[in-house]
Every structure is written in structure tokens, then in C-alpha cells.
Specification:
Blueprint (H helix, E strand, L loop, with lengths): L5 E4 L8 H6 L4 E8 L3 E2 L2 H11 L3 E7 L5 H12 L6 E5 L10 H15 L4 E4 L1 H7 L5 H4 L3 E4 L16 E5 L23 E4 L4 H7 L3
Parallel strand pairs: 1-2, 2-4, 4-5, 5-6, 6-7, 7-8
Antiparallel strand pairs: 1-9, 2-3, 8-9
Length: about 210
Amino acid sequence: MPAPNVVDLYHGDNVTSFQQARDSGVLGIIHKATTGGTGRDDAYKDRRKPATDAGLLWGAYHWGTSAPPKKQVQNFLDWAKPDEKTLVALDFERTAGNQMTLADAREFLTLIEAELGRKAVVYGGGLLKEMLGSAIDPFFGKHRLWLAQYGNHPAVQASWKTFWLWQYTDGSQDGPGPKSVPGLPGDSKGHLDCDHFVGSAAQLTADWSS
């Protein structure tokens, strides 16, 4: 069974103790920072210092939409304020009536790399597989994959040989356990996005923001 050594959060998730989460074996937090060209998660800034003070790695993700990629990148950088230790990620998933295209995702990722001098992680699951089909896409394949797949046998799209991080459950009935983390109760239903890194703590730390 996977272990939840990384947890991703947004403002709707409750947090009681980052220190308790760290003591339980969690190594990193990836927090939602922004959505589209204007959306901002108010909890992001308030939680950053308590998380890092507890010894947790810190990351920021952006939920992509159909807004102009340049505007989305600016919104993300202005609010997330990633430093050299911050993992940055693009959340590419279904957004009804406001869907980011693959072309826009390419532009977003290209602009992020130009600004930060490093590649963002790509978060995706069924939609990414559907849009890329069976083709090998060298551009996307050069970005680390944060795979969203709630099952016991995670499978990646052909552009990747394996995932870098695996979101194995959203804390509901889907996906294997464990589905809870001390100090991080999750949303109003008790659901929590849990992620697994296959490797050592030292390796995760070394890879985190590279």
C-alpha cells in the first residue's frame, strides 16, 4: 500500500497541525495557489510559513483554465511567489466550460520555465491521457508527471516511462489507503488528497524543486 508522504491542499481543506503531519511521516505539501487569470487561494499565504516551520517541503500549484496563458502565469507568480525551494506545478484537469487546451498548457509551461529557469511539474490523469492519446509527446515528457489515478495499478501515458508523484486517492471511496493524515483532517467530508513518492526522503528533497 502507498504511504501519503506528500499531501496536496486547497482552502477547503482543514489544517490543525502541520507539525503533527510531519511527525507522522509526511514530507511535503503542495498547496493550490491560483486558478486561471485571476483566481487566488486565500489560504496559500497563511499556511506557507507554518508548513515550512514544521520542516515540510512546500509547493504551489496552478489550476489551468482557458484564460490567456500569459495572464495565468503572471497571476500564479504574483501570488505563489515561488522561491528556489518551491515546487511549482500545473494542474491540468477537466474544467467544464473553461477548459485549458494542450496548446495553452504548452505555453504556460514554457513561460514558467523562462521565468524560473526550471520546469514545472505536470499534474494530470484521465484528461491528459485522453488528449495526448497514444502518441509520445517529447515536450510534455520532459516535465515530471504528477499522476492522478485512484487505483492499485497506476499507468502513465506514453510520453512518460513512469510518474514522479502519484495522487492515489482523494480520500473518498476511490483508491487504496491510507486516506488520512494526522493534523490534516481534509475537507468538510473528511476527504484528503494523498500522494506517494517512490523513493527516499533524501531523494524527494533533492528532486523537489529541481
